[in-house]
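Support request, please re-run this one:
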Amino acid sequence: MEWQLLVHDGCQFAVPVSWRVAPDGDMVIAPDGISNLSVRRFRILNWSEHKAHIRATFVHLKIVHEDSDHRFWFEIGNENNTVHYIAVRDGLSACIGLMEIRATAMPMAEGTENGIVASIRAAGVH
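Re-run finished. Output below.
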């Protein structure tokens, strides 16, 4: 699969070349027209407090994929709609992505979700 590297709001991320940037530039949309990803940079003064606040806000985390000093990634939703919350820490800020996957959408190729998540970081950081 071919990937494209995009930069938005001080964050970089990769998505398959079949994904397109929305007209307003705030998200990228999968070929199914439903699944999407938006990424923003936020100032986060205390990583532990941020994660605790997000856990309290979302309450029912379906799956926690990673909860580390660098990345906080979990899923919320139900059988019809899943949202991945991905926060990647970079000093006193974090790049935060929301990736929405609908069950009615065409299945993504194996490894697509993980590839997108692994690519989210501050622009210029390798």
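The mean pLDDT is 91. The helical segments are 47-58, 112-119.
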